[in-house]
Amino acid sequence: MAAQKGSAFLLKISDGAATPTYNTVAGLRTTQMSINGEAVVITSKDSGGWRELLTGAGTRSVTVSAAGIFLGSAAEGQVRGNALAGTIADYELSFEGGEKMRGKFLVQRLDYSGDFNGERNYTMTLESSGVVAQV
Q1: 6-134 CATH fold
Q2: pLDDT, block means (10 residues), the chain with 135 residues
């Protein structure tokens, strides 16, 4: 597998249409994704002293973190609106190799900061709600 550019790892938000268009949350400088799983342990006396896990059981989730420069784009406005309303919306993660992951996410945290002589920055954390699928 060839190395991929971090600049091509994009967070996009759906416009909410019946046939959605996904718009890049502009101004991103960093994007991070974590796939989390919680195992169900089924170890018994017959396990021979080794832990056993039940495949397909437990809970899975995806956490997305992003940081960037505030540009005032429509996509950033949607994210802020979702954060204020506690709305779960459709998002897409896009990678340089053409892979995509889509799912519903809640804006768990949205922070803005800025210095008196610098740009306005933001950081955000999104938590998945339901299935996150590769498309």
Answers
A1: Pnp Oxidase; Chain A (2.30.110)
A2: 77 94 90 93 95 93 93 92 97 91 97 90 96 95
